[in-house]
Amino acid sequence: MLQRSLARIEMDRRASNAIERARMLRLQNERDALERHYCRLQEAIETARAERRSWEERTAAVSAFHTQESAAWAAFKARMAATLKGQSTMTSVTLAEIHDNEKTIEMTLKPQQALWASKVRDAKSEIHETKAILLDMEKKKRVLSAQLQQAQALYNELRAREDNARATHEVHALRLEMHHTQAPLF
Question: Any coiled-coil ranges, and where (predicted)?
Answer without folding.
Answer: 120-168
